[in-house]
Design brief:
By secondary structure, this protein is an alpha/beta fold. It is built from 12 helices and 19 strands. The protein is globular and about 85 Å long. The two termini are 31 Å apart.
Length: 454
């Protein structure tokens, strides 16, 4: 079983649409706040699809060739995980024609688009749930949800099943054939508009049989469509060939940030953990993993590193070197900071005077290197430790091998002959007469070897 081939060369950029860019102020809600306001769980900044179109040059400049959008369907909140109509673009983002214009322009640039499939629950404003509230047991949609008694009551505790107890997120009854038909129609509709895949929101709250059918529907429309499951712990459950092509790789995130930010693990533990994670992912699925350091559900990368730019850059080096598709959360590339929700969902800073140019230049360099070296995209990964502070991540492809030596301690001299699978030549550095190369404090050395056997 193999994942869609394009994923091996993919580099993702995640956008929270409401906070990325305001391209059409005419769509702004009446209570829109100034762009640089402090984010809350309720306020609206006016981000829209036209804003994304206007800034595709920026996304492309990072080396990104895929975009993951958090929900874009009609909803009542800024996060839109409370859909009220899955077949409409939220009116504050634009409309279907705007979305198609976005897709067309993204595809013209070679950028694929993945949408968020929020099918475990909807919003309490969804037309089917409103019909149940109004007509109670007589509603033809009453079995689309799980309501214990009437009248439907959200407070003090909802008397219907919800997502994680949140009253405004009633849970779909995914065992109901009509609900399944609705959800599969949603999957088909947006694929037919031209999207390139689905990210499954909280899929662990729905039984696997549903997702098996979902996969069949998706692949029948587009065999190269990407299906990636949100999963925080156990990726192998989703990677048996009948559910998803990959998962959000939070386990890799824990390893990288444990090494670079928290200093809770050393290089030996990182190497052991990386090997164990790789072994858990079945053959053929490594390229489908969606690797991340930050998202709309975490604190920002620079915040996690307590403002330490060198540590954050080291984390990005490991992210862009690992097997799987790297993903950058909007704003992290310019050094935005923020704690977890709502702090991580601040409006994108478009004033270049506020950008951390060192981080931005480094992210662009990583994008260039990944594009130039097939081993960084399609090579088989192995990880070892030289010492407690030094990781060696090797990607071996039939055409070349690349080694990334990530060091978090004081500056040291590295004996290139000590790096496994050599001999190696440094990229952007010159070894001394003894074949040693200097690595500055908390930085990375990249090495390359040709395809000839050694």
């Amino acid at each position: 079983m193999n994942v869609p081939d394009w994923l091996a060369d993919a580099s993702f950029y995640q956008i929270f649409p409401e906070r990325f860019a305001n391209g059409d102020p005419a769509l702004d809600p009446d209570d829109v706040v100034p762009w640089n306001s402090v984010p809350t769980r309720d306020n609206f900044f006016g981000g829209d699809l036209q804003g994304i179109i206007d800034h595709l040059d920026h996304i492309e400049s990072l080396g990104a060739n895929a975009i993951y959008l958090t929900p874009v369907f009609e909803a009542n909140t800024n996060h839109r995980y409370d859909a009220v109509d899955y077949f409409k673009i939220d009116h504050r983002l634009g409309d279907l024609s705007t979305f198609k214009a976005f897709l067309d322009e993204a595809h013209r640039r070679g950028i694929r688009v993945v949408l968020d499939a929020v099918l475990n629950h909807c919003g309490d404003g969804h037309w089917a749930f409103r019909d149940v509230v109004e007509h109670e047991a007589e509603s033809r949609y009453v079995n689309w949800f799980s309501v214990e008694s009437f009248p439907v009551s959200p407070h003090p505790e909802p008397n219907y099943r919800t997502c994680s107890g949140c009253y405004y997120l009633p849970k779909w009854n995914a065992y109901n054939p009509e609900v399944r038909a609705h959800h599969f129609d949603v999957a088909r509709f947006w694929l037919e508009q031209g999207i390139d895949g689905w990210r499954l929101d909280v899929p662990y709250f729905i039984n696997h049989n549903f997702w098996r059918e979902f996969r069949s529907v998706v692949k029948s429309v587009d065999p190269q469509a990407y299906i990636v499951a949100e999963e925080w712990r156990d990726p192998e459950e989703w990677l048996q060939g009948d559910l998803a092509d990959g998962t959000m790789n939070y386990t890799l995130r824990d390893l990288i940030l444990g090494f670079t930010a928290d200093r809770s693990i050393d290089a030996f533990s990182f190497a052991k953990g990386a090997a164990a994670l790789r072994a858990r992912i079945p053959d053929g699925f490594h390229a489908g993993m969606l690797n991340l350091l930050g998202s709309h559900d975490t604190e920002r990368v620079l915040t996690r590193h307590h403002g330490d730019v060198a540590g954050a850059l080291l984390a990005y080096d490991l992210l862009h070197s690992a097997e799987g598709a790297p993903m950058m959360y909007y704003g992290d590339e310019v050094g935005m900071q923020g704690d977890n929700d709502p702090g991580c969902r601040g409006a994108m800073r478009w004033d270049e005077g506020e950008w951390n140019q060192e981080i931005l230049a480094h992210i662009k360099l990583l994008g260039t290197r990944r594009a130039e070296h097939i081993a960084l995209r399609r090579g088989v990964q192995s990880v070892t430790a030289l010492d407690a502070d030094t990781i060696v991540l090797v990607r071996a492809h039939e055409d070349e091998r690349v080694a990334v030596v990530a060091h978090r301690g004081p500056g040291i001299d590295i004996d290139l002959e000590a790096i496994p699978m050599g001999p190696w030549l440094p990229i952007g550095a010159v070894p001394d007469d003894d074949g040693r190369c200097r690595i500055a404090e908390c930085s990375t050395l990249m090495l390359m070897s040709g395809k000839e056997p050694v």
